[in-house]
């Protein structure tokens, strides 16, 4: 009896071990099968090299159209190092995952894309796969470019292939292991990438859809203005366009949650995006500066369409009536703080800033952003305001011909923190920003060029 128990116990143990081994073998087999499946899924063929097409092989009007599209897609601002040769690559993009350098997309055969066919270029733009079959990182916004029509991609190809070849090898990326393995990007794509051309919405007219196409496909506004998840993919639904950090700046919400006291009406968007300064808002600085400046080239009809679409996201036109009240309040705050010379913070502000950012004329000066209206003072993050005070806004950056001086050299961290706290307290009804002085010190340490 005792033996029988032992033996059945042993048998159970052996059977248990066998089951366990079978499970392990099964799991390994499944794992291998999964890996093989993943490898098959991740694998993309290399496309053949071609003889570099002669610039004269493209129709001039197509090249001209491609030039406008490439400008609106900011190709050169990501594919050119500051002061470098256009499209030569090497521009560094930093993120929590490490640094990725843009590649050379000039028509150089050896170091650029001179040997790429139109099909290889289309595949890169629409699927994020390079000519040699390797997966590209989503720092290249192919999840937006996938929406660009074949016709427009071909025009961009014609333009790029007509540029001067730049001989410059790619800078190796510095990504946290194992993220540098390109095949893993196939997993990211499986989770987050939905390839496909732009589909117009039947609920809207042609102009709105044209604006949506420009914003979503080519201009990829949401790449900066939408927050991302832990794996770096843009969040959808209500989070879309709800504001996000980018290169040390905060790209404000473009939804109704935008905290500017004056609404983003179509007129204001027009002035901000295409004249470089809006009377009730300010100027596109930091990473928004190259984005806005690239849009200046869009034909009038496209500018109107883009504004129409963006204005519809925040619904600013419906609130156009509140602009007058915001303006009245701003002028009143201006007048009171100029008279409040017993407040040492107000005195400091008047000495440092009011020579430009104040006018007693009772009208808003469109060339001097009113700090009670500018969203930098109203955002949940003080970063934009601190950056503007520390580093200023150069001529090529803000509105054409205007300069906001940099105060970083003359002012201590405590001075800048004090000014920011003062503006927050007197120009907005928002809660004070915590740890201001530490934030100023951190931003100063990062320097102006965080890109
Ligand atoms: C936000 C920055 C950014 C913008 C804007 C951008 N690119 Fe890129 N692009 C990159 C980065 C970074 C890479 C390299 C990705 C990698 O190494 O996986 C890249 C890679 C590419 C490649 C693949 C090149 C190769 O050698 O594998 C092509 C083609 C390309 N971009 C074309 C364009 C075109 C055309 C535009 C404008 C319509 C554009 N890019 C706009 C960042 C950008
Ligand atoms: C490369 C990142 C980037 C891209 C692309 C980008 N933006 Fe911006 N945007 C920003 C940043 C950063 C700011 C804040 C700039 C400042 O404070 O001067 C900003 C500011 C703005 C503002 C002003 C908001 C406010 O309350 O002050 C508007 C409007 C805007 N962007 C619209 C757009 C539109 C429309 C597009 C696409 C055509 C776009 N942006 C593309 C980064 C970007
Ligand atoms: C010499 C004149 C001058 C002085 C002094 C000056 N500013 Fe400015 N400021 C400007 C101009 C001009 C602009 C618009 C810049 C542009 O469009 O390029 C501007 C823009 C700004 C903006 C808007 C940025 C945006 O993204 O819309 C803020 C915020 C700002 N200044 C804050 C300050 C503060 C705070 C002080 C005091 C420390 C100050 N400025 C002192 C001229 C000045």
Automatic annotation (TrEMBL):
GO terms for molecular function: electron transfer activity; heme binding; iron ion binding; oxidoreductase activity, acting on CH-OH group of donors. Heme c 1 binds at residues 75, 78-79. InterPro entries: Cyt_c-like_dom (IPR009056), Cyt_c-like_dom_sf (IPR036909), Cytochrome_c-type_DH (IPR051459), Membr-bd_ADH_cyt_c (IPR014353). SUPFAM superfamilies: Cytochrome c. It comes from Lichenifustis flavocetrariae. This is C-type cytochrome. One of its GO terms (cellular component) is plasma membrane. Residues 61-164, 316-427 form the Cytochrome c domain. It is found in: Cell membrane. Heme c 3 binds at residues 353, 356-357. PANTHER family: ALCOHOL DEHYDROGENASE CYTOCHROME C SUBUNIT, BLL4482 PROTEIN-RELATED. The lineage of its organism: Bacteria, Pseudomonadati, Pseudomonadota, Alphaproteobacteria, Hyphomicrobiales. Binds 3 heme c groups covalently per subunit. Heme c 2 binds at residues 221, 224-225. The keyword Repeat applies. Its cofactor is heme c.
């Amino acid at each position: 009896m005792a033996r029988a128990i032992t033996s059945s116990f042993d048998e159970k143990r052996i059977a248990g071990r066998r089951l366990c081994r079978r499970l392990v073998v099964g799991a390994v087999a499944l794992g291998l099968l999964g890996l093989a499946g993943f490898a098959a899924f991740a694998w993309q063929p290399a496309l053949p090299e071609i003889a570099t097409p002669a610039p004269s092989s493209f129709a001039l009007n197509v090249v001209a159209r491609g030039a406008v599209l490439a400008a609106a897609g900011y190709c050169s601002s990501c594919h050119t190092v500051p002061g470098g040769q256009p499209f030569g690559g090497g521009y560094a993009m930093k993120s929590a995952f490490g640094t990725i350098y843009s590649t050379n997309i000039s028509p150089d055969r050896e170091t650029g894309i001179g040997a790429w066919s139109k099909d290889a270029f289309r595949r890169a733009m629409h699927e994020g796969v390079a000519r040699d079959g390797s997966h590209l990182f989503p720092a290249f916004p192919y999840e937006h470019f996938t929406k660009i029509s074949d016709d427009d991609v071909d025009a961009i190809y014609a333009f790029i292939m007509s540029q001067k070849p730049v001989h410059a090898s790619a800078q190796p990326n510095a990504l946290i292991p194992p993220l540098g393995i390109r095949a893993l990007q196939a997993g990211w794509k499986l989770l987050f990438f939905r390839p496909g051309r732009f589909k117009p919405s039947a609920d809207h007219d042609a102009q709105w859809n044209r604006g949506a196409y420009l914003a979503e496909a080519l201009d990829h506004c949401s790449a900066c203005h939408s927050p991302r998840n832990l794996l770096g993919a843009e969040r959808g639904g209500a989070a879309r366009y709800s504001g996000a950090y980018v290169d040390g700046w905060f790209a404000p919400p473009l939804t109704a949650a935008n905290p500017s006291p004056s609404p983003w009406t179509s007129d204001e968007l027009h002035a901000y995006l295409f004249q470089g300064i809006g009377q009730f808002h300010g100027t596109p600085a930091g990473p928004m500066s190259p984005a806005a400046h690239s849009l200046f080239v869009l034909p009038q009809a496209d500018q109107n369409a883009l504004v129409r679409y963006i204005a519809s996201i925040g619904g600013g036109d419906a609130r156009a009536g509140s602009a007058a009240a915001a303006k009245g309040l701003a002028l009143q705050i201006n007048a009171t703080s100029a008279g409040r010379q017993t407040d040492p913070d107000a005195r400091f502000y008047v000495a440092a800033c009011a020579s430009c950012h104040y006018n007693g004329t009772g009208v808003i000066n469109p060339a001097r952003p009113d700090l009670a209206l500018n969203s930098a003072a109203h955002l949940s993050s003080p970063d934009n305001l601190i950056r503007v005070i520390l580093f200023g806004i150069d001529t090529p950056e803000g509105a054409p011909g205007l300069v906001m001086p940099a105060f970083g050299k003359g002012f201590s961290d405590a001075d800048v923190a004090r000014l920011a706290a003062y503006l927050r307290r007197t120009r907005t009804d928002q809660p004070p920003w915590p740890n201001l002085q530490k934030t100023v010190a951190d931003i100063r340490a990062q320097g102006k060029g965080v890109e």
